[in-house]
Amino acid sequence: MSETAPDRVLRLAPGCRLGVATGQEDLLLIPEGALRLKGPARAIVELCDGQRTLAGVVEELVRRYPTADTGRIEAETAALVSGLRDRGVLEYG
Prior knowledge:
This protein is of the alpha+beta class. The chain has one domain: Arc Repressor Mutant, subunit A (Orthogonal Bundle), CATH 1.10.10. 38% of the residues lie in helices and 26% in strands. The chain has 3 helices and 6 strands; from the N terminus they run ββββαβααβ. The strands form 2 sheets. It has a 3-stranded antiparallel beta sheet with strand order 5-1-6. Helix 2 (54-64) crosses helix 3. The protein is globular and about 35 Å long.
């Protein structure tokens, strides 16, 4: 996995966009096809809007989910962002 930079702004890479939810699936449309987003993954991707850093995304998730473990939010968000960056779906702005 690639390193994440908590102080750099994240955004979807060109050609990638969130799809309209069909049933219970949220899709992230990418040039090669689509990725299914499960759990809070859609919220994380939506927050990677070219305005927020990784730290800002985590801060907003902690605000939205005050009963969730902050360490778990940080770890899972960093892992998802890193994986999506490795696939070329997210990039630093």
